[in-house]
């Protein structure tokens, strides 16, 4: 449970209003050829893929969220840097390259209503919002919704993403606590809260926690908001970055105005004198007005039991074959899929690029393509417009690493990279071209003041090794070179001198 911190009256946005008028029908179809469970990136990519190969296809997306499919990366990145006071209503944002777009993959007009699905001459994609699939009858090829409606299908995709764990840490009083941060509603809620309180605490030192800390840290400089970030590791991104780079990142987050508390294990949270009091296991206490727990997500496998689907005991998620099939007419894509990577072994990946590509491939295979999943997906993280990195493969700080660095210039930033390439979402696989169509912004985003580097980690390449073979690569403030990294991992060779390999990325060019 958590306090409802959104304003229910004016801010059910224009996009939401349109979405609901399109997506909430009076009479549901009792059968759909293609049923997609989940309304995220993987599901949308699958729908586009199905329609591309089967132009008359009828596709029904069922999502328990109130919104049409949208991209999640901007929720912790660009949306926070918008200078538009109505950004929580429009959900339009300027990308680092200055171009503007909506967080939604497509406007409401792209979809048809579920009640039209049976009769639409050319088929279409319908989204059923605010409905949850609670039971799968695999033999009968049908599902049951939380309102007892039954829908049968010919082919089904499970793209249910992640959900919060039952309990991340002991909270004795739930007022003003956001347990997770994962949706448009969470963004609206946190935006509103952060403008009306004195102190906010983020628990978690991973991608999401660090991005939110930097975003809110910038706001703290304008409004005097105290932003605290705490986590069990010794530094930001401690599970991913080698220690020296984690230390550098921690200093960067501090320079954004964030108070960082490391090696912090939460014992309990109580409510005392109008404040939340976070008690750490070592006795330290932090008083705050609001908590965001950027921890504790796990793959949503709620349907495994009723569907009789196999869950991977090591990585979680539904086990699928090379074609992302869990059963003969059931596919799984995105965060919930545990797939076999021919180079790196069995894996589960939780990033935008993987959601796009696995969703697209699952959609193709649902129409009979029979293609194996071989793509080595990448991911990226930006600590604001001036520091960012792209990564591929297994990036785990417990592995041996070799880093090769060069001096950065003003063009070695996420903002400069997107200006040069003209792309917004830094994923090679973001091919939803009509969705990503951009229009020039009336006022370009203000250029950030170039940050003077205080050390030698301006830009570089970090190689992660397993049995002397490169299994992961991070490109630190080095952009648009992912095909080179992908080839190095695909080749799977031992390298005598990784300094020579680093030259492939041209990091020493001016």
From TrEMBL:
GO cellular component: mitochondrial inner membrane; mitochondrial intermembrane space; nucleus; perinuclear region of cytoplasm
Highest taxon, organism lineage: Eukaryota
Pfam families cross-referenced by the UniProt entry: AIF_C (PF14721), Pyr_redox_2 (PF07992)
Region called Disordered, residue ranges: 410-454
SMART domains: AIF_C (SM01353)
Annotated organism of origin: Takifugu rubripes
Family from the record: Belongs to the FAD-dependent oxidoreductase family.
Key words of the record: Acetylation, Apoptosis, Cytoplasm, DNA-binding, FAD, Flavoprotein, Isopeptide bond, Membrane, Mitochondrion, Mitochondrion inner membrane, NAD, Nucleus, Oxidoreductase, Phosphoprotein, Transit peptide, Ubl conjugation
Cofactor annotation: FAD
One BP annotation, GO: apoptotic process
PANTHER family: APOPTOSIS-INDUCING FACTOR 1 (PTHR43557), APOPTOSIS-INDUCING FACTOR 1, MITOCHONDRIAL (PTHR43557:SF4)
Protein's recorded name: Apoptosis-inducing factor 1, mitochondrial
Residue stretches making up the Mitochondrial apoptosis-inducing factor C-terminal domain: 362-491
Keyword Transferase: no
Quaternary structure and partners: Monomer (oxidized form). Homodimer (reduced form). Upon reduction with NADH, undergoes dimerization and forms tight, long-lived FADH2-NAD charge transfer complexes (CTC) resistant to oxidation. Also dimerizes with isoform 3 preventing its release from mitochondria. Interacts with XIAP/BIRC4. Interacts (via N-terminus) with EIF3G (via C-terminus). Interacts with PRELID1. Interacts with CHCHD4; the interaction increases in presence of NADH.
Membrane-spanning segments: none
Role summary: Functions both as NADH oxidoreductase and as regulator of apoptosis. In response to apoptotic stimuli, it is released from the mitochondrion intermembrane space into the cytosol and to the nucleus, where it functions as a proapoptotic factor in a caspase-independent pathway. Release into the cytoplasm is mediated upon binding to poly-ADP-ribose chains. The soluble form (AIFsol) found in the nucleus induces 'parthanatos' i.e. caspase-independent fragmentation of chromosomal DNA. Binds to DNA in a sequence-independent manner.
GO molecular function: DNA binding; FAD binding; NAD(P)H oxidase H2O2-forming activity; protein dimerization activity
Localization per record: Cytoplasm, Perinuclear region; Mitochondrion inner membrane; Mitochondrion intermembrane space; Nucleus
Limits of the FAD/NAD(P)-binding domain: 35-358
Reactions accelerated catalytically: A + NADH + H(+) = AH2 + NAD(+)
Organism phylogeny: Eukaryota, Metazoa, Chordata, Craniata, Vertebrata
